[in-house]
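Forwarding the complex inputs:
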Amino acid sequence: MSLLANRAAPRQVAALPKRGRRGPRTGWRGPLLVAPFFVFFAAFGAYPLYYALQLSFIDWHGGATYRWVGLGNYTYLLTNPDFWGALGNSAIIWLLIVPAQTIGAIVAAGALSRAKLRFKRLLRTAVIVPYVTPLAAMAQAFVLIFDRDYGVVNHLLGLAGLPSVEWLTSTGWSKVTIALLVLWKSSGFALIIMLAAIQGIPGEVYEAAALDGAGPVRTFWSVTVPLMRHAIAFFVVISTLGISQMFLEPYVLTGGGPYNSSTTTGLYLFQHIGASDLGTGAANTFLLVIMVLGLSLAAVRVFRESR
Amino acid sequence: MAYPHDQVLSITSRRDVLRGLGLLTAGSMLAACGVPTGSDKPAALGSSAAPSAGTDVRGQVTLWMRDDDLLKVFRTVVPAFNAKYPNVKVDLKGVDINTKLPPALISGAGLPDGSFWEDDQIGQHGEHLYDLTALMAKYRDDTIQFKLDVLTQDGRLIGVPWDTDPGLLYYNDAVLSGAGVDPASLTSYDALLDAARAIKAKNPKARPIPLEQDDTLGMMWYTMFLNQQQGHGLVDPSGNLTLDGEASRRALTWIKTVVDEGLGARQKFASTAQITMLDEQIISLVPWAIWFIFIPQSGLKKTTGQWRVANLPAWTQGGARSGLMGGSSFVIPAKAKNPELAWLFYEFAVYDPEGYRKVFSKNSVYPTGLNTVVPSVKSALDPAKPLVERLPQLGGVDNWAISTKAALDIPAGYTAPTWYGQAAKYLGANLQRLMDGKMSVDEVISRSTADIKKNLIDRN
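Prediction (whole assembly, two chains):
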């Protein structure tokens, strides 16, 4: 058969499987192919979750004996100032990070996606580098950089005639320093998300905006940002999850101090687990899950309704 | 533009999520009564485990150590152990013990046959550890009493005492000489304050006494002051809190005086800031655990050779010149596969002169000997037979004699409550407030007592 003949041949349409009332028959192959996922999910996802939920109703420190406490662990946490203190610390850190990082990433992505920008590749690489740097190493470097007596930041402040700041040892500034570390570390990730979103916007939309007489600023706020709302929602949810679980940053930078003022919800949870107070730790986990789930659903709804 | 997560969120409605959580909760509450499957207290590891001859013993033993210099030191002991027990293969592993051992003990999975552990961590896991009372019987009289006190839980001895960490006074001799202070006069904490005042009068920038910024270490420092005065620490033999006692008030008032008179330097142990302050002669009087010794040995540049060591000052006339700050032991999990072999190794390393000499005498890791701790075995603490060499960094003073005297003088009766580590969140944080001048002595006592009772004692 020649190539020409082959081209001329009518296209064969594969016969569709006969559909019964229950859909296409796949026999045992379909369930078999998806079974590994369900087995792994049941073993390493669902069962641990179920077990942890059981733990949250008992007082157990890992010994041979345990005590049923019902909702006791939950009421203990919900009436404990330390739990709310940790939640408040995380909320402040969230406020210091997420709005600034989100807006900054949108603006930076807009700038980096501009065709005429010079050194675009270099800039893109530069902002990603912190994201691939090990967090523990950077946190340790921040301890040195922000040391009250011998850190380079206070040295520079001194050269500028400004007073020293207790970056790691005052109740207010310790949270700011943690936020600075997170901003430095994860802004590259925020930029990747926003850059991907901005590059997915069709060029025709911008052409239409230009025909309507919209300038660059108007186009950015009225066209680009609204079309990025899914990415923004995604980033806000991911960031909220990350901050609710934040552990390493305060652990290395401040140890949760001074006076527990930088103890985040993740570090507070670790303190229970680390002390083998497994019941309270499990209850703490589920309270966090419920709160973060609520916040995430609220964020998604806000961005969905802003269409 | 649509993202997969949007699809997931739209497929899984809020009602579905809540329904799922509700079902999960209800099911869990029904089943929760049967969660942990524990056993009764483990049987004691009996003296019958001891074999008649070394060659009779065979097998492999896995032992966990912290992944640090001590691991390297203990690896040098293995050949000597194998000379006595040639058919035992010893696998010493460096592990983050505080993270890995508790879950291993609880689950019984991946357990070692024995493990190093800090004394204040051991108590809360006593149910998972072998009772070594019978095996240790022949060594009790040769063991420092406070180590036996720390490791005894409900009459069960649950660890092999390893190191003793007495408190000592490290001071910069050049700074003291410059201020006209005779080091021999530092026999009381009042004298220490007077010395600090004299140093500050000579150098207004000086803040001679370090005030620790880490919650846990700060609490350990304060606990050393309690032990020094009353034997027991945060709790008395009946389990009652001692925060409002005379010893506690005396120690807290002393710390407050250091703060109020600007005699203290806020920093963390072994931090860059502390090392710089030591080298710049800002800090010059350090009542701290024996393990401070590694800083003059390795961390200082300008002031190396200026440092000296002495016994702690006393709180009262004729009072103890020693107190404990730290310490660790070896434990044998009740579900270990080869507990007898673990015991044999620990017995050799801790109580056999050949073993402990191998550990403490100079080696490739510690060229002058392991001097950051001292043994818990009384017969090893002979001032006339030093296991470690004198140090030029400490002006050649007899640090072995000073350390061993301090170890033997640690007041007996100390016990670590199972919640000791968790108390740092309350007492540790309040001590920090005191050291920052933001809390009074009375407030530290009342708030710490209330918080510890509510969050730790009543819930344990």
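Confidence is low (pLDDT under 50) at residues 1-12 of chain B.
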